[in-house]
Amino acid sequence: MRTVMISMESVCIVVQCILLYGCIREVRLRNHKNRVFMVLVLNSLVMTVIDFASWYFDGNPNRVNAMIGLSVASFIASYGIGPSFTYYQIAVLNEKTDVSMWHGRVALILFSAVTIFTVIGTPLKKIFYYDSNASFNGGDWYIYTQLYGLIITAYNIFLIAKYAKRMGRHHTLALLSFMMFPFVTLLVQCVYKDASVLNVVVMLCVLILYIMLQAQRETEFQEKEMQLMRVSRTDALTGMQNRRVYDEVCDKCGGIEYVGVVFCDINSLKYVNDHKGHKAGDELIKSVANVIKKYFREEDLFRISGDEFVVIAIDISMQLFHKRLEGLHQEFFSDGKIKAAIGTSYGRGDDLVNLIREAEHKMYQEKDMFYKAFPKYKR
Asked: What is the pLDDT of residues 265-279, one digit of tens each?
């Protein structure tokens, strides 16, 4: 048994040192949750190292006093896992909502009580004692130290259940996985005092938690990256794709069979900005964009400058293209208000550059007609 435990805990120490190294690197991110998790890993490592030393000296009559000291330290270090985990759970929750620090104080009160209980009971040989062969034996009060573990574990499981919705499924599963295995192990140790595998189970749970958190961190990073990419490719005012995406599409349309192009330029935008303010100008831009969105797919729409929009309708039939243009014209020329000048063209995707040039030319012709009819709006 002694050889097996020393071997297992040697492996645990190596794994926990690797985890601690990873945590130290992540603390540079100045994230409170990472710092608390590092304390949890450090607590677990200290507990394992002390227990390893206890097993190493186990059975040596000349080291009984040292073994008693190590055993007390091992008990206290194992007690510390509960409040360390509670404070980590609070750090996770505080990223999403405000949580009372009293949850952590309750765990500290329990920790302090069982520590005092152990310090008092050890000289009386009520917690544990070493026999004539220098072998560890649980005392009459040993069961109460295990009950502390069950109580603090149950308390943490209660907190997980209470705040499960706020934490989200991923964090809830990760935290539950950390708590459930030690809980079962403590139940076993209450019945079988020699089944001393709690340190190994805690190490495995810390490892599982670390892996799940790393996976979540990677997912969050990818989501932020995707969000930044969307922002960099989207016009903030209208929600349309921006000039950057427009240039990419123009370079990739060579293999498309047919494409319809619409080039729109808002009429009198400068006049509106100068006389009614830029807020009114922004509203005009959004109203024109919303009209275009009604008739064409969002992936075909681009705002390429302040008052210019381009539609590149890919793989659209000529009949459907003209039908949508009719609706677009009716809205732009309703109520005697000509909101935008429009130029259109239709042809093969291989000739997209010329189609855009043709549509732009027609748009300017229509714009010239507008300014001749309404000279006060001329720039």
From this structure: 998 888 888 888 999
Strands (DSSP E) along 52-147, which ranges?
Answer: 128-130, 136-138
Neighbouring CB atoms inside 10 A of 224's CB total 10
Band of residue 56 on the pLDDT scale cut at 50, 70, 90:
confident
> Beta-carbon neighbour count of residue 40 at 10 Å?
24
What is the Cα 103 distance to its own chain's centre? Answer: 24
Query: Do 309 and 326 contact (CB within 8 A), yes or no?
Result: no
For 358, half-sphere exposure in the C-beta direction (CA atoms, 13 angstrom radius) is 11
Specify the DSSP element, H or E, that contains 342.
strand 340-348
DSSP code, position 234: B
Cβ neighbours for 326, distance < 8 A, ≥ 6 positions apart: none
- Give 129's DSSP letter: E
pLDDT value of position 349: 83
Give me the amino acid identity at 201: V
